[in-house]
Amino acid sequence: MLAPVRHQPPPPWPANTPLGPNAAQILATEHWSLLAALLADATGFGPQTTTLALVLLPVVLLLGVATYARLVQINTEEFQLVLAMNRLRRAYLTIAPQLGGVVHHRPPR
């Protein structure tokens, strides 16, 4: 008979969360607007400000869309991984029903 596995609580921010690898993208998107505001204040909202704003806005938009697309991709992959883990759990319980106390499986609703 197998001993039950004691589960440890997860760390507050696991390394594989979307915030980890995409933190630079999110921070860059937020800080472009701050840079534009500081430059606009320094130049007195002159023609240089308009030119810089017209150059930076598409860059920020592209960075924001790329961030959103990556987060959607991460969520889709994570959903597929959860489905695969559930298939593995179900297979383990089919092969060895005595693992019921160790491997927890909740059937889909």
Description:
- Helices cover 68% and strands 0% of the residues.
- The relative contact order is 0.11.
- The protein has 109 residues and is mostly helical.
- The chain is rod-shaped.
- The longest helix is centred in the middle third of the chain and has 49 residues, at 47-95.
- The protein starts with 18 loop residues before the first helix and ends in a 14-residue tail after the last helix.
- The chain has helices at 19-43, 47-95.
- It has one domain.
Features:
single chain, 109 residues, mainly alpha, 68% helix
- Helical content (DSSP H or I, runs of 4+): 55-70%
Task: Please provide the ordered H/E string of secondary-structure elements.
Answer: HH
Would you report the number of β strands? Answer: 0
Provide the domain count.
Answer: 1
What class would the helix/strand composition place it in? Answer: mainly alpha
Mean pLDDT, all residues: 75
Low-confidence runs (pLDDT<50, min 5 residues)? none
Give a short account of the largest sheet. Answer: none
**Inertia-based shape:** rod-shaped
Number of helices: 2
The whole-angstrom Rg is: 24 Å
Kindly estimate the percentage of residues that lie in beta strands according to DSSP.
under 5%
Distance between the termini: 30 Å
